[in-house]
């Protein structure tokens, strides 16, 4: 079974802190994604990556950056956390660019910024 | 561009009731369609999919038929269980290859 793990289930940070969310997948998938999930808004794509050191902006990249130094790891960085970034963050991976739609999700990180 | 609209929730049903969650889409061509499910405290997982018009996807007693005439992909189950309580997302690919998710429909099944 594909496994996508995220470094923390719950995280509490202060406004202005730099925050790192880590995601690791164990199935050699090329594509990795970061979403945030908010009530009434569904899932919104922040960034995605289709190869090591490659990244593409999603729908809401402002205030975020990403890093993909190794194929299995995709990190989301909040440079200076703000209260409006309080949310559930979901990482996903998928096997090939030809079939990017069968995404496998991690359990999520619920981030609270105070 | 492509888009998806699903019914608002929450949907509350008694155990063994019939379930329908509506999903309609707007798309160029006939893209694959998906239903994902998110159980409490977990990430999303693929529930079922249909890759072309008139296909029926099925899994765990859930079914959805890709209907191009009505541009719909409604999720159905004949007899829901408490364990089906979750959030359900309809999804389709965008023109740039990403997945577009609906807003999600929360299902609560009461014993």
Number of helices of chain A: 0
Oligomer: heterodimer
Measured between the Cα atoms of the first and last residue of chain A, the distance is 37 Å
Radius of gyration of chain B: 13 Å
Shape of chain B: globular
Distance between the termini of chain B: 41 Å
The number of helical elements of chain B comes to 0
What is the beta-strand fraction of chain B?
over 45%
Question: What order do the helices and strands of chain A follow?
Answer: EEEEEEEEEEE
* Category by helix and strand content of chain B: mainly beta
Which percent range fits the helix content of chain A? under 10%
The chain pair forming the largest interface, with residue counts per chain, is: A-B, 21 and 19 residues
Shape of chain A: globular
Instruction: Give the uncertain stretches of chain B in residue-range form.
Output: none
Q: What report would you give on this structure?
A:
The complex is a heterodimer of chains A (about 110) and B (about 110). In chain A, a hairpin with a 2-residue loop joins strand 7 (about 65-70) and strand 8 (about 75-80). In chain A, about 0% of the residues lie in helices and about 55% in strands. Chain A is mainly β and about 110 residues long. In chain A, strands 2, 4, 5, 6, 9, 10 and 11 form a seven-stranded mixed sheet that branches. A four-stranded antiparallel sheet of chain A has the order 1-3-8-7, with no helix packed on it. Chain A has no helices and eleven strands. Chain A has strands at about 5, 10-15, 20-25, 30-40, 40-50, 55, 65-70, 75-80, 85-95, 105, 110-114. Chain A is globular, with a radius of gyration of 13 Å. Helices cover about 0% and strands about 50% of the residues of chain B. Chain B contains no helices and twelve strands. Chain B has strands at about 5, 10-15, 20, 25, 35-40, 45-50, 55-60, 60-65, 75, 85-95, 100, 105-110. In chain B, strands 2, 5, 6, 10, 11 and 12 form a six-stranded mixed sheet that branches. A four-stranded antiparallel sheet of chain B has the order 3-9-8-7, with no helix packed on it. Chain B has a two-stranded antiparallel ribbon with strand order 1-4. Chain B is globular. Chain B starts with a strand and ends with a strand. The mean pLDDT of chain B is about 95. Classes of the chains: A mainly beta (about 110), B mainly beta (about 110). Chains A and B meet through strand 5, strand 9 and strand 10 of A and strand 6 and strand 10 of B.
